[in-house]
Amino acid sequence: MRPLVPPYVETLKAYVPGKPIEETEREYGLKGVIKLASNENPLGPSPRAVEAMRNAAAQVNLYPDATSFHLVRRLAAHLGVKPEEVVLGSGSNELIELLIRTFTTPEEEILLCKGSFPAYRISAQAHGRAFVEVPMREGFRYDLEAMARAVTPRTRMVFLANPDNPTGTTFGRKDLETFLAAVPKDVLVVHDEAYAEFVDWPDYASAVALFHAHPNLVGLRTFSKIHGLAGIRLGSAVMDAKLAGYVHRTRMPFNLTTVAQAAGMAALEDAEHVKRTRENNRVGLRFYGEELPKLGLTLTDSHANFVFVDCHRPSGEVYEQLLRRGVIVRPMAGNGHPTCLRISVGTPQENARCVAALKEVLS
C-alpha cells in the first residue's frame, strides 16, 4: 500500500509558536501571565484599525474584494511604488509559501541561513523543495559572503531575514548590494524585512529602495509587528510587476478578509500609533541592554522588537522556570541555539517583571 503522504511531509516538523497566555495559566495555575515570546506589539493594535474592523464586521456576509483594490493602492502610495508591484497575503507566511510555489520546482534548491527564521525551511520542505543552509558567522550574523559562494546552478531562491529573526542582527546596504551583485539574475532574493520599521541605523537598506535596480529582489513586510495586527494575518510583498503577475496566478482568491483589508487601510493612517510603538521599543531595548548583562547574559545588537539572549547554560531550564513565574519567553534550542532565549520588548512594566524573574531564576 502506498504511504499516505510523501516522505518530505512524513519527516516535516511543524512550526512551534510561542506558548499562549491562557494555556500557561491553565497549566501552571497562574493568573496575570505576561507573554514576551512572539514579538507582538505590547501597545496593542492601532486604535484606528480597531474602529475600522468594527465597521467592516457588518459586511462579512459578503465575500471580500479579491484584489484588495483600495489597500493595494494605499500601501503602494505609502511605500512609493506602483500598485502592480504590490502583492498582499494572509501574513507574510502566505507570501513565503506563494513565492516557493510560484517560482521553484522540485529539481531546484532554496538557499537559507542556518538558525534564521524557521518558516523558510518548513515551507520549503512542505513543498518538497530541497534546501541548503549556510551557518551564521560570529555574533549570530548572516554570512553573506559564504551564502554567495553556496549558490549553484540548482539554486533558484534565497531567503534573507534582515533584521534577522530570532537574533535581531542586521546587515547594511553595502553588504546587501554586494550580495545581489554576486548572485545570478535568475535567482530570486527574498529580503524579509518584517522588523524594518524598528531599525534605527542609517546603513540599513530596504528592498523597497533597491528592487527597481535589482528585478530579482523581493521585499516582504508585515502588519503584525509595528501596527499590532498579528491576529488578522496581513503581510505584503514588493517586487517587479512581472513577478507579481505570476504570484497572483497562484494566489488563492479572497485570501484577505474584509476585516483585514479595513484594518490595513486604517493602520497606515495611524502615524501616532507607529510613533508610540517605536518609542516604546527604543526604551525597551535600552532597558534590556542595560539590565540583562548585569545577570551574566550576553545580547546581540538587536535592531528588532526583541532581544536575543545567550544564557550560557541550557535555555530550556531557564524558560521553564520563567513559566512558573508567569513570564513566557521563547527558547531557541529548536532553532539551533540551545543556550539562547528570545525575549520580546513589552511595556516598561512587563520588561521590568521579566528582568526581575530572570534575576530570581539565575541566582
UniProtKB/TrEMBL annotation:
The keyword Manganese does not apply. Signal peptide: none annotated. InterPro entries: Aminotransferase_I/II_large, HisP_aminotrans, HistidinolP_aminotransfase, PyrdxlP-dep_Trfase, PyrdxlP-dep_Trfase_major, PyrdxlP-dep_Trfase_small. Pathway: Amino-acid biosynthesis; L-histidine biosynthesis; L-histidine from 5-phospho-alpha-D-ribose 1-diphosphate: step 7/9. It catalyses: L-histidinol phosphate + 2-oxoglutarate = 3-(imidazol-4-yl)-2-oxopropyl phosphate + L-glutamate. Its EC number is 2.6.1.9. Residues 32-358 form the Aminotransferase class I/classII large domain. The modification N6-(pyridoxal phosphate)lysine is found at K225. Coiled coil: none annotated. Pfam families: Aminotran_1_2. Its cofactor is pyridoxal 5'-phosphate. GO terms for biological process: L-histidine biosynthetic process. Keywords: Amino-acid biosynthesis, Aminotransferase, Histidine biosynthesis, Pyridoxal phosphate, Transferase. It is an enzyme of class 2 (transferase). One of its GO terms (molecular function) is histidinol-phosphate transaminase activity. The keyword Amino-acid biosynthesis applies. Belongs to the class-II pyridoxal-phosphate-dependent aminotransferase family. Histidinol-phosphate aminotransferase subfamily. Homodimer. This is Histidinol-phosphate aminotransferase. The gene is hisC.
